[in-house]
């Protein structure tokens, strides 16, 4: 209840900020896109993790206005990165946002206001979006995603491999990119084990046979990046390359010679 009151104030007072985590092309090792990650800096308090407040925001419906702010801000920030470096931006979208009848208008409005071209925007949804949805709800969400996709916006499935029935969702959802959950790259003290690698390999084969582009999340070591490159994973994201950083630090990363 306290958290919820805090979130209401945060929306009213503009206490949210975005950080961006680079996603690197495994062949060229250059940044090809960034993921926007929401941060809440309440005055006089420690930063609250989205892992703690996003579920509360979802349950209360506050994720709809918060998510609209994220979309608007991420598109504004990305306009410069896209025009200078061709970098696209990925935004996490919660289930409640996809169920909002205004969602398509919100996304297209964020693009129009910022001037960001649709091909520079990726929407990240999770498999859980489809869980507990009725057939009719699923149909509406799929139609919305198709509408956005027909404009050139790309859709990514986030945290792939952690939900249920992953494969059946791939058939139903209009998708362009598959993000392999960090659980597959981070198991154990010595990094991913052979079972993780076998599963990663299977997911990559599946993705590529469906024509999907792939991103491995949670890549922390050069050894893991080598394995992923050998398995023909397209891109990687993780502490090996960069943690999520603020706008100024990302500018510096993009401008650094490589
Ligand atoms: O950045 P961090 O690892 O703390 O993020 C924790 C979780 O919060 C992740 O699952 C991430 O997808 C989610 N998250 C981060 N930013 C956003 C956002 O803008 N919207 C939504 N819905 N989830 C977010
Ligand atoms: O669920 P989602 O993929 O949106 O979550 C992204 C979050 O994962 C980021 O907020 C970031 O803090 C976290 N993250 C990103 N890279 C790494 C990594 O290499 N290792 C770990 N442990 N967490 C990571
Ligand atoms: Mn994500
Ligand atoms: Na993820």
Automatic annotation (TrEMBL):
Keywords: Membrane, Transmembrane, Transmembrane helix. Residues 1-258 form the EAL domain. This is Diguanylate cyclase/phosphodiesterase. It comes from Cryptosporangium minutisporangium. The chain holds residues 566 to 823 of 828 of the full protein.
